[in-house]
Design goal:
By secondary structure, the protein is an alpha/beta fold. The protein has 13 helices and 21 strands. The strands form five sheets. Strands 2, 3, 4, 7, 8, 9, 12, 14, 17, 18 and 21 form an eleven-stranded mixed sheet that branches. Helix 4 packs across helix 6, helix 10 packs antiparallel against helix 11 and helix 10 packs antiparallel against helix 12. The longest helix has 30 residues.
Length: 486
């Protein structure tokens, strides 16, 4: 690429990191050219892109999943590599400047109410406020969220990782086997593996199951090169190039390695204590049942199209524009039957996901939208606020629901062959953020988010789930909310 000259030493570093020189050049081009906005058309809502099953329909969907689960391969996939640093952001500020803020005051005043309180040093109550906060930071700031104690129980505290083991036994099981996969950072692998061996016997006895737990790390080959504010390669003090993890969108590679009929996806910090797990279990089974029904209809439609059955084209078109929420191109009706069949097969023969959507109560994050696609279709997408053009910002306020990352996926086709998920991403939906290293500003490139651009070309269905299924921990004081107390 004109304007970027890598030395031979640079090229060796790029290749050894798992990238190619061409890919690094393309990343710098993306910094220069930027990314366009997602062509959103309208916010999805109940009756227009979001299902709200009746009580009898919900019962039918849950029953469908319960009936089928023992004959399916089911995996619960949990992105768990994120560090807890941001949880403690305000505590870091207080520890540095000694000026109390609302988070530090709330933490100190309720220190004994945190599940991690027993893990703090003895005599912590006798220390001054700043020393107490420093002890909290020493305990948790260097840990991933998954290894932090979230909830207290009579028999001891439970980490977020432990809550996912517990939750998985209640819906992500085939017979007596529970399969879970966690994406982690290599530096914390030993911590996760040690904790698993400590708690596995207790959970297996409690739930009458056998756990199959696997871990993977984000491939360094998905990292992206960092640049200066002038879009020149950012260099470390020793002159080497700086590469950074490219966000959770890179985990499409990890997800692609999972061989299962059904894959549940849920963030590591979105867990509830046992007393509040009921709704989570109910609605996980609900969206899984919806997925099974939609996939059955899709597979039947693909088979009918391949066999050129009478009426297959009309039925497939009705399925797409109805339950599968894909609006066909304006000129579809003018195509001949062969062209219609080819387009319908392309639109139907794809991975599928059903995403739970929570009624909007002011939580930050992405939401459900209708968006235009390059092929003239319109489909459902999860969009972040930064992906919406300023002139369409009003659509954000018109949204009735937001995305809690409550997803269940079907990644095999009608013949049981696994899709290559990397073929269904939209590379044009990455984004650029401003960061710093060693006091120097840099620009960082993130790949399309796992549930945004990395799944942009999947069949997507949205279903309403209650806010009681969404209990995230973004700040340490969130652990003091009623939903995180036993």
């Amino acid at each position: 690429m004109q304007g970027v000259i890598f030395s031979e030493k640079d090229k060796e570093q790029i290749v050894s990191h798992g990238l190619t020189v061409e890919k690094a050049e393309k990343q710098i081009a993306d910094f220069i050219d930027g990314f366009g906005y997602l062509p959103v058309e309208a916010a999805a809502a109940v009756g227009s892109g979001i299902m709200r099953p009746s009580e009898s329909e919900a019962l039918r969907y849950r029953h469908a999943y319960d009936t089928a689960a023992d004959d399916l391969s089911v995996v619960k996939f949990v992105p768990a590599s994120g560090a807890a640093t941001r949880m403690f952001k305000d505590l870091f500020t207080f520890a540095a400047d000694g000026v109390p803020n609302s988070a530090s005051e709330k933490t100190v005043a309720n220190l004994d109410k945190f599940a991690f309180y027993p893990a703090l040093p003895e005599g912590i109550d006798g220390r001054d406020d700043r020393a107490k906060v420093e002890a909290v930071l020493e305990y948790g700031a260097a840990l991933p969220k998954g290894l932090i104690y979230f909830h207290s129980y009579p028999d001891g505290s439970r980490t977020a990782f432990g809550e996912h083991l517990s939750e998985g036994a209640l819906y992500a099981r085939t017979g007596d086997t529970v399969r879970l996969h966690f994406t982690i950072s290599e530096e914390h692998r030993a911590g996760f593996e040690t904790l698993l061996e400590q708690v596995r016997p207790r959970y297996e006895e409690l739930y009458g199951v056998r756990y199959e737990v696997t871990f993977s790390v984000q491939d360094s080959g998905t990292d992206t090169i960092a640049v200066t504010p002038e879009n020149e390669p950012f260099r470390n003090a020793d002159g080497s190039l700086l590469f950074r993890p490219a966000g959770h969108g890179a985990l499409i590679e990890n997800l692609n390695s999972i061989d299962a009929d059904i894959i549940f996806i849920k963030n590591i910090d979105n867990v509830a204590p046992d007393r509040l797990k009921g709704d989570t279990i109910t609605y996980k089974k609900l969206i899984a049942g919806i997925l099974l029904e939609m996939k059955r209809l899709k597979d039947e439609a693909v088979t009918a199209l391949e066999n050129r059955e009478d009426g297959a084209v009309d039925r497939a078109a009705g399925l797409l524009e109805g339950p599968l929420c894909c609006r066909l191109p304006a000129g579809f009706s003018g195509l001949d039957d062969g062209a219609k069949r080819q387009l319908l097969l392309k639109l139907l023969d794809r991975p599928m996901r059903v995403c739970g959507m929570v009624p909007n109560e002011g939580e930050p994050g992405g939401g459900p939208f209708w968006a235009a696609n390059a092929d003239g279709t319109s489909s459902l997408q999860i969009a972040e606020p930064s992906q919406v053009a300023p002139e369409k910002a009003h659509l954000l306020s018109e949204g009735t629901h937001f995305n809690p990352v409550d997803i269940v996926c079907a990644v095999k086709d009608h013949k049981g062959r696994k899709f290559d998920l990397r073929e269904y991403t939209d590379p044009s939906t990455g984004f650029i953020s401003e960061k710093s290293k060693d006091g120097r500003k840099l620009r960082a490139l993130e790949l399309p988010g796992l549930w945004n651009g990395a799944m942009a070309n999947w069949i997507t269905v949205f279903a309403e789930v209650p806010v009681s299924t969404f209990t995230p921990v973004k700040e340490v004081t969130d652990l003091l909310r009623p939903e995180h107390r036993q």
